[in-house]
Each structure stands twice: as C-alpha cells, then as structure tokens.
Design brief:
seven-stranded mixed sheet, alpha/beta, 302 residues, globular, binds zinc ion, 25% helix
C-alpha cells in the first residue's frame, strides 16, 4: 500500500504545490482521494497509472477538491478506457459529476458511476473497507478511512509439525483458512494459526476543523493525512473557514494515537513550511508536511 501525494496545497495552486489529490496504490488498482485542478498533470509526473484509478472519493464540493475531474475523465476516455469509474462524495456529488460529463462536446467512452454518500457510510470492497464520516468544514465535507480487512494469524510451524502435518500444500490450505485432514484427523486453521492480525489503515480528513468524529475514525490508523491550512497565528481565520492549524492537526493525531501524520492543504501563503512542521512536532513528533509527488509506503506494523 503506497500513498502518493499528487497535490498538497489548499485553496488554489501555487508554484510549489498543486491543489489537493492523494492516490493510494493497492494491489491491482488505485484509489484516489480528491481531484483538484491539474491533478492529471501531477499524475503524469508520478508513477501512478491514471488508467488504474477505479474509485475517486471527493471530500466536498469546493473547487480545489474536484475541479480536476472533467479533464481526467476526458483523458481517460481519449486513452480508450472501457472500465467503469466510480466516484463517491457528499450530497450533490452526483449532480456535479453529471454537469461535468455534459461539458462541451464530449461523450465518455466508459461509464462513470457517481454515488452520494452520507456520514457513517461503510463501503465493503472485498479486501478493504472505506468509511466516511462528516467532518467540520464550512460546507458538508467528508473524512474517509481506508482499512484493510484483518490478515490471518502467523503460521505456527512447531504446532503444525507436532500435529503431524507434512510441509507443503496442506500448510497453504490452512494458511488460506481451509480445514485439512491428516491421518483421519480434522485440523482447523485455528489449530496452527495465531490470532488474526490487523490490516493497514489510512485516514484522510478532507477540509476540517479539529473534529471528534475524525479522531474516532482515525483511531490507531497507521497514517493520518490531515488539513493543515495555517499556522497558529492565523488560528482565527482557520476556525472561521473550517480549517485546522498545524498544531490542531497534530492534536488530532495525538488523540487518535496514529502512527504517522502527514499535513496537507497548505495555504499558498507558505513558501517555507518550517513553522507548520515545528508547530505540529511540538504536539505530535511524527509529523511532516507532505510535498507534491512524494510517496510513502505503509508497512504492516508486525
Ligand atoms: Zn480546500
Ligand atoms: Zn473546502
């Protein structure tokens, strides 16, 4: 599981940062969170294949989070895409996507399936779940978690040998969660596997003030990607516009006991993000301001 920060700026693009978009590379597919203007150009500069994007989750309908969609959809069509593209977002997303598909002289060669989702929605995609909760912004805005299903426990070789199971295909069957039979004895996976191990979890806050719902959603996440629009000297503006300061984002990370915090949605006013990183680290040590096109591999904790 690899996170690619395509755009890490907020509000409008700057020379240093494009507006928000985050790609998550999973086996066989890419999941995208937000798609600000210019995201497809950022994709060209990255190692993410834009044709592998299956699902796009839009946090809210401010332009810096969705304006990249029409161009990206048109390019996918021009490149011969046939596979459906699924777009999820808060109320109003479906209407917006319909308008985008009707822009100019364009007919998509593939189907775009758009779905409005509300707070508390859980989507099961087989190997992983996506959960959405209402964040605290100036308009309806969602935070998302992507959480892998638990993995089987560790295979206990000594126990398997003691039970007389021969090494080879029977080991794999048990590891895959199936029962086997050895010398007339039925052996279940629980007899040779340890306790199921947690999968990896990442959470993206979208635009938000510090939020208890986001804290609950982010509990023990490996990675939290959080709104960090301003430093604390502009705390009043952050509150008025439904954003977080660096210290507030770090406080959320600390309360949620996450592994690593990445700060995004940086205001175009910052060329040097030192102040944001210092403020965040004084509250939560493992904090960093994400850079455009930087990557982070999320490893299993065990
Ligand atoms: Zn924004
Ligand atoms: Zn916004």
């Amino acid at each position: 599981m690899r996170i690619v920060f395509l755009g890490t700026g907020g509000t409008y693009p700057s020379k240093l940062r494009n507006v928000t978009s985050i790609a998550v590379q999973l086996p066989g597919e890419v999941v995208m969170f937000d798609c600000g203007e210019g995201t497809q150009r950022q994709l060209m500069h990255s190692t993410v294949s834009f044709m592998k994007i299956r699902k796009i989750f839009i946090s809210h309908l401010h332009a810096d989070h969705f304006l990249g969609l029409p161009g990206l959809i048109q390019s996918m069509s021009l490149n011969g895409r046939e596979e459906d593209l699924h777009i999820y977002g808060p109320k109003g997303t479906t209407g917006n996507v319909e308008s985008m598909l009707a822009l100019g002289y364009f007919k998509s060669g593939f189907t775009v399936v758009s779905t409005d989702i509300g707070s508390g929605k859980e989507l099961d995609f087989g190997g992983y779940m996506i959960k959405a909760v209402q964040a605290e912004h100036s308009i309806p805005s969602l935070a998302f978690s992507l959480e892998e299903k638990p993995r089987p426990g560790r295979f206990d070789l000594d126990k398997a040998k003691a039970l007389g199971i021969p090494e080879g295909p029977l080991f794999r069957r048990l590891q895959g969660g199936r029962k086997v039979s050895v010398g007339g004895k039925r052996i279940t996976p629980s007899m040779v596997l340890g306790r199921p191990r947690a999968g990896r979890k990442i959470v993206y806050s979208g635009d938000t003030k510090p939020s208890e719902r986001v804290i609950r959603l982010a509990r023990k996440a490996d990675v939290l990607i959080h709104d960090c629009t301003l430093d604390s000297s502009h705390g009043g503006i952050a509150r008025d516009f439904g954003h977080s300061t660096a210290a507030e984002a770090a406080w959320v990370a600390k309360k949620a006991k996450v592994g690593t915090l990445f700060l995004v949605h940086v205001s175009p006013r910052y060329e040097d993000v030192g102040i944001l990183e210092r403020e965040a680290r004084s509250v939560f040590k493992n904090s960093q301001v994400a850079k455009d096109l930087s990557k982070y591999t999320v490893r299993y904790p065990d």
